[in-house]
Amino acid sequence: MPIPGVVRLTIQPRADSGGPPRAPLSAPPSGPAPRSAPPGLAVNLVDPPAGIEVVGEIDRTTRDTWSEALTAAAAGAGDVHLHLAGLRFIDVRGAWLITDAAGTLPPGKRIFLHHPPRILRTVLTLIGSDPLPVVVESP
Amino acid sequence: MNVAPSAPADPFDHPALFYRDAAEYLAGTVPFVRDGLAAGEPVAVAVPEGNLGLIRDALGDAAREVRMIDMSRAGRNPGRIIPAVLRAFADLHPGRRVRIVGEPIWPGRSAAEYVACVQHEALINLAFAGRDAVILCPYDVGGLPDEAIEDARMTHPVLVDGAGRRRSADYALERVLSACNRPLPHPADAAELSYGAGFCDDPLGRVRAFAAAHAARFGLSGDRLEDLRLIASELAANSLDHGGGSGTVRMWREDGRAVLDVSDAGHITDPLAGRRPTPVYQPGSRGLLVTQLLSDLVRVHTGRDGTTIRVYFDLDGADPLPYVRGAGDAANV
Fold first, then answer.
1. How many distinct structural domains can be found in chain B?
2. Do residues B148 and B45 share a domain?
3. Are B155 and B268 in a shared domain?
4. Are B145 and B285 within one domain?
5. Does B74 score more than 70 pLDDT?
């Protein structure tokens, strides 16, 4: 599942078993060397549906990694799927970055949130994400 | 406030309505609502539940044309009334004159809430300056202490009662805001954690764990525990970004509430910080706004020597989301 940019940001193997199967991460394509993630956040490439799985906590410390992962995912072909069952915390800015990425999508493309934590749904509601193509796929 | 004599009159109108009984209440509010409807203006009534029923019954069928809001729930935290009630309604009707009955103060507000209510009433004047809107604020002269009526004369440029309408000679916006910015001493036995430069690694993770553990110990659980954990993280992140890079979080239990108190070296100079709905397309900090929307009470003491933000969560409180969800959407209009 070649989504250039997303692979580049794939950082750590998933710690737990189960969940959606993910693409092998052992052979990143040519390009910048893999970055190391800050402790507390892992962004994994998963398939299907094509997208990224987020495990850990998103706050000021891990924001840049999250922002880059979202930007790369939004730049790929097709809809964006965020698998969030392993997301243990996301702050207000982290939630807003999802809406910011959604605002850059071409018409017809959407960001699907799979198993978002309730606090993310709350913050998206409070900041007024309704006009943007962000879909809670499985509450 | 210095206003040049040649400045055009501010279209914003913010009268206090002093009433003694239900008859005076209805005489002061129902014609106000009907006049707005007759003029084709969007009208909202945001008052406590009992008074809401009075107005609804008196309006009859016309009540269907009015946005009716239970202020005792939507305005549980006075600090969220501007973004989640007043501007949430006004912003839905850009370019049109809107008319709102807003009753934020009722007998039974605690002393800590009351200060936040007075501050809120004063800040309405700043939040709506220059906007074509009228917000009529009823005050229960019989049920509220005399102090509340005196404060209303200082926070409202115009007063209305059975004798008619007149300018308030006591209007004193800056004085009220200064008086509401009062020190917030904390109990000596509060749990305490310092974070940031010179302290532990992973400051925000530590603050979240600290806040969640103590709030759970006080009896908070479920969604509200998650809300408080988020707010603790947002306020501590503000310390790292704007408060000198470190801060102290304290927690204690007080009168059926979990209290979260964050102090740092920052100085909040914008009196409306956290009270402006922000369109989702616009970058910018929303941490204080979300704090106001999700909390049951927020108090702030800020100055050159530092800032303390104190957040209260009712231990038996309800999820505020159904009452505050319009805040962001309206800003997008």
1. 2
2. yes
3. no
4. no
5. yes
In a domain, B96, yes or no: yes
Residue B95 scores a pLDDT above 90: yes
Question: Looking at the domain assignment, is residue B234 inside a domain?
Answer: yes
Q: Of B295, B322, B317, which Cα lies nearest the Cα of B78?
A: B295
**Residues B161 and B215 reside in one and the same domain:** no
Tokens standing for residue A39: 């402790």
| DSSP β-bridge partners for residue B191 | B251
Peptide bond into B271 cis (omega under 30): no
Mean pLDDT of A123-138: 90
Q: Running DSSP on this structure, what letter comes out for residue B15?
A: E
Interface test with B, best of A88, A104, A119, A127 (most B CBs within 10 A): A127
Domain end residue (candidates: B180, B202, B237): B180
The vertex-A29 CA angle with A25 and A45, nearest 5°, equals 35
List the beta bridge partners of residue B254: B257
In a domain, B282, yes or no: yes
3-state DSSP call for residue B100?
strand
In a shared domain, residues B246 and B163: no
Contacts with B, A 36-95, CB within 8 Å: 39-40, 57, 59-61, 89, 91-93
- Which residues touch B164 (CB under 8 Å, ≥6 apart)? none
* Average pLDDT of the segment spanning A96-116: 95
SS3 state at B305 = coil
Can you name the residues that pair with B4 across neighbouring β-strands? none
Question: Is B6 domain-assigned?
Answer: no
ipTM of the complex: 0.93
pTM of the prediction?
0.89
DSSP bridge pairs for A83: A53, A114
Chain B interface, best mutation among A62, A67, A92, A132, by max B CB count within 10 A: A92
In a shared domain, residues B159 and B216: no
Q: Please indicate, yes or no, whether residues B218 and B304 belong to a single structural domain of this protein.
A: yes
Asked if residues B275 and B79 have their Cβ atoms less than 8 Å apart, the reply is: yes
Tens of pLDDT along B202-256?
999 999 999 999 999 999 999 999 999 999 999 999 999 999 999 999 999 999 9
| Residue B297 Rama label (left phi>0; alpha psi -120 to 50; beta) | beta
* CATH for B48: 3.40.50.300
Residues B78/B119, Cβ–Cβ less than 8 Å: yes
Count CB-CB contacts under 10 A for residue B70.
18
Domain membership of residue B273 as a residue range: 191-332
Is B278 within 8 Å of chain A by CB?
yes
Bridge partners, B247 (sequence order):
B195, B264
Q: Looking at the partner chain, which of A96, A118, A129 has a beta carbon nearest the beta carbon of B226?
A: A118
